[in-house]
Amino acid sequence: MSTQDRLIESTQELLWERGYVGTSPKAIQQRAGAGQGSMYHHFTGKPDLAAAALQRSAEQMQAAAGELLDGPGNAHDRIAAYLLRQRDVLRGCRIGRMTQDPDVMADPGLRAPVQETFAWLRGRLAAVVAEGVAAGELAAGLDAEETAAAIAAVVQGGYVLARAADDPDAFHQAIRGALALLRTV
Amino acid sequence: MSTQDRLIESTQELLWERGYVGTSPKAIQQRAGAGQGSMYHHFTGKPDLAAAALQRSAEQMQAAAGELLDGPGNAHDRIAAYLLRQRDVLRGCRIGRMTQDPDVMADPGLRAPVQETFAWLRGRLAAVVAEGVAAGELAAGLDAEETAAAIAAVVQGGYVLARAADDPDAFHQAIRGALALLRTV
DNA sequence: GTCTATAGACGGATAGAC
DNA sequence: GTCTATCCGTCTATAGAC
């Protein structure tokens, strides 16, 4: 892997663990095994590097979720597959975490991947919900957008509960609770 | 208000806006209109002050939620009142936000108020859900703990969606989605 | 491309005068 | 109780040699 790639990957990890304010160029360099000069040769500075890292994380998250939501099975099963997918619960969501960082949200280049990822996710979920309602797998009256927002929110909020309790089970409880409510046709 | 109180209140605000890592003693002093010496006279340092601020925020959050969950109306109405209560959506949750800050979660004194608040909230919600199921206001098979976790998660995740979209309506969509699912008896 | 040296600002805290 | 002075480390970046 190139130095440039190692820098991006290290930044992805550190943004996930410590957020933007909590991540220093020095820490990135150390994790990537690269020197100062090297980093500033490939990137103009911390914001530039963070933008590259967030774009990559956003692509990866969309690819992972898209695979399940576009996968095999009926609509209900695909939503369940998305909700039940293996996750690093206590680490939380790499993208969702960024919404808490004012410096990220204030910089359009950093904010864009976050905004786009959630817009994409909600749209994709809404389409599957609509499909499920049409097929009679989900309750007839459900609003697709609202239901999709609720599903996405349960995942993001589940991470919060799990970290607060320091227990991944809090996440899984929330997911099971949501699935039970969806099943109540 | 005493200098001590102003320091605590300023810290509450800054922790909410910028998180623990992003909040400096200097910024706290400026917002509180207090000098360095004054701050270090009343508190041993940043962690001590943050602990006082988080404890106060935790109390306030529990008081606000408790009032609605213990208020008038049947179980379903109290859950709806909690979900629909007026919120500063784009600012997010003062307590939930802290779960993303590794320095907070690593310090037992800072972590405790966060952990306790969510444990309390989930327990309180579960009791109301159980009451609603018993009264036939909520679907018969619902697991109280899981449903409560899902409800708490929708709120926390709703904040994430709203901040990502820079639009409070994302939060309200998630809430309406959750309420619709709860209504589906 | 990568290295070392250097720089100004800020973070977090201490000391001692008043 | 509050103020000013001072301290050492880190943050983010630039400069220039190799």
Name some characteristics of this structure:
homodimer; 185 residues; mainly alpha; Tetracycline Repressor, domain 2; elongated; DNA-binding
The CATH topology of the domain at 55-183 in chain A turns out to be Tetracycline Repressor, domain 2
Q: Give the N-terminus to C-terminus distance of chain A in angstroms.
A: 50 Å
| Helix run count of chain A | 9
Tell me the structural class of chain A. mainly alpha
Query: Could you give the order of the helices and strands of chain A?
Result: HHHHHHHHH
- Sum up the overall morphology of chain A in one term: elongated
Plain-language structure description:
The structure is a homodimer of 185-residue chains. By secondary structure, chain A is an all-alpha fold. Chain A has a domain at 55-183: Tetracycline Repressor, domain 2 (Orthogonal Bundle), CATH 1.10.357.10. Chain A is built from nine helices and no strands. The first copy, chain A, has helices at residues 3-18, 25-32, 36-42, 46-69, 75-84, 102-106, 108-134, 144-165, 168-183. In chain A, α7 crosses α8. The termini of chain A are far apart. The mean pLDDT of chain A is 98. Chains A and B meet through α6, α7, α8 and α9 of A and α6, α7, α8 and α9 of B. The first copy, chain A, binds a DNA duplex (18 and 18 nucleotides) through residues 3, 24-26, 34-38, 40-42, 45-46.
Please provide a brief summary of the model.
Two copies of one chain form a homodimer. With 185 residues, chain A is mainly α.
